[in-house]
Amino acid sequence: MKYKIINLLKCMVLALFIPVSLFASVDKTSLSEDDMWDRIIEFDWKSSDSEPIVNIFSSKASINLNDFYYVDILGHYSQVQQLMYWSNGIEYPKITHYLDVYLNDESSYTINIEEFVDDGFIKGDDWSNVDANDFLQEMIKGSKENNKERIKNGYKTVTDLSWHIKPKFNENLGYVFYSLVVQFDDGSETYNSTAMVLGRKGYTDITFLFKENIADLMPGEIDKVVKNFKYNSGVQYSDFKSGDKVAAYGVGALVAGSLGIKGLAKTGALAVIAAFAKKLWFIILLPFVFLFRLASRNKNKEQ
What we know:
Elements: H1 2-17, H2 33-41, E1 46-47, E2 53-56, E3 61-64, E4 70-74, H3 77-88, E5 95-102, E6 108-114, H4 132-152, E7 158-170, E8 175-184, E9 189-198, E10 203-210, H5 218-228, E11 229-231, H6 251-258, H7 269-276, H8 293-302
Antiparallel strand pairs: 1-4, 2-3, 3-11, 4-5, 5-6, 6-10, 7-8, 8-9, 9-10
């Protein structure tokens, strides 16, 4: 018995050092939407009414949701991965948290949070190199290549992209963000907005997805989310000190990489290209779960 306990403890310690993505298992079996729906509702959803503080362990940060009307929270990594696959037809292994944020009983938006990228402190001295129009053209080219994978998996393809909000750098709050309008071949469209929250040792990528009816409200909502996303004391952007590790790229290259553009990557050499390799898919579809949010909200409130 003693040796079984020792071996169990060894396995538990080892698990702390193995990347969480190794434990993710995405079921790619073809299911009806009703079957997916039934399984999603049984996921480990948390309610901001009962658990308003969400710890983002990989970022050494947390989000305080007390100021929000209501949020459905999914932090179980394997379930987040399954939801993202069912919604997009491709995998997003870097996404660790999924949040449904309600503005009221009728309107809501989705947040996807990625694991922390510890490339070092990111300076803003290359921001003048950002050309939003050039970025857009590069993205349109990239989406055509990505469409091949979407077609193969039976998902709708991207037909056009435009700016909702061009890239902006808020140095005081320590984040950079942009917002895209994505149009699909079935005539539908969604908005992809990304805020990269900077810390002392790297950044956290937060993606917002929403419909046109709340597009005008989202710049304020993005600010609200970022202000309530707090790195722990000592690892905030303002905690930078001389001698700290500095990233091989700047904020401008960070935006380019997050959009799947290699144009500015050359300014940061190979380190930047490696860091941005994860961004093959810079467009995320609005999950069909968007339709059941009110049901999910009532379900959580009854628990």
